[in-house]
Amino acid sequence: MTTVRTAQTPSAVGETPRPSILIVDDRWQNLLATEALLKPLGADIVTAESGEAALSLVLERHFAIVLLDVQMPGMDGFETARLMKTRPSMLGVPIIFVTALSKEDHYATEAAAIGAVDYIFKPINPDILKSKVQVYLDLYTQRQQILQLNATLRQSNEELERFAYVCSHDMKEPVRMMNIYAGFLAEDSAEKLDEDGRRYVQYIRDNATRLNRMIGDILNFSRVGREAIEVEAVDTRRVFDEVCAGLAGVIEAQRARVTCGALPEMHTSPTLMRVLLQNLIGNALKFQDGRRIPEIHVSARREGKAYRFDVSDNGIGIDPAYADRIFTIFQRLHSEDEFPGTGIGLSTCRKFVRLYGGEISFISTPGEGTTFTFTLPQPARL
Prior knowledge:
By secondary structure, this protein is an alpha/beta fold. The chain is built from ten helices and 13 strands. The strands form three sheets. It has a six-stranded mixed β-sheet with strand order 1-3-2-4-5-6, sandwiched between helices. The longest helix is centred in the middle third of the chain and has 63 residues, at 126-188.
């Protein structure tokens, strides 16, 4: 006769669910003895008197560990374990065989081939069995806590990104109107305003422009990860030329030399490549002290399964003490008066690159220049 018996205690709301142990043995005396032995470990204990009953249980619930008798009438322990392992939910569940069958090596080898983590012979040493089960229960609990924490973090990140997107989107229109009407005031009432009045209006327009730029950057940052990254064949030299054309005014004003080596055609996101080159070249042009002509060079080379890009400049450099802050959103190393910006560009680059599976870093010598390096994984063939 096949029976299934459970002894389950509900976990408190918000706590990691109590782990469950499945004990399978055709002799009820063994089930009672093993259950009594493992009960002090604090897990829910479920028992079954046949392989068929055990298979029904793994269809219904998740177990932290299975103790499986080898010798059973009908379906034996080995066959039961093989069928259990066909269930995706059971692939990572440790199985300990408990047997009086034989101490011949080929039985233990067969058990290991099925995926068993241990093979214990009867009569059982209670202390050894409790210690082994406790180890697997601890591992299960730790894994569940990590999964729970990851799920919480993922939800928090999604809520924050959604909040940033909604706030930024809703702020765009008021800021645009503020800038427009400040412009009307400056043009239509210029003769009525004294010097202080004109200066105040200009403050409004400058701050509206800055706020509009920040909103745009926040929107771009929040979009990264919310939308799928479209990948296609991209001529990165062409993207470089387009970015330089967009920065032509700054390049000409600074008489900067922006050059590149051989840049590849690769499988990537054109948006990602444009964001990276625009931010890194734009920063290289911005962070100059004016004592020399800016020189910026972009190069690329294949490294294993990825392309590595270097963007080098002869700018003011970055103090190594700020290495941890440089890619953090809203972290600025200089005041708005020294170098205008929102402090979002590099964090957007890092977020984008990591989503794509690459990395971004930099080396720098203060007063001499900086080289930013990013990698983009590539398939074996385009």
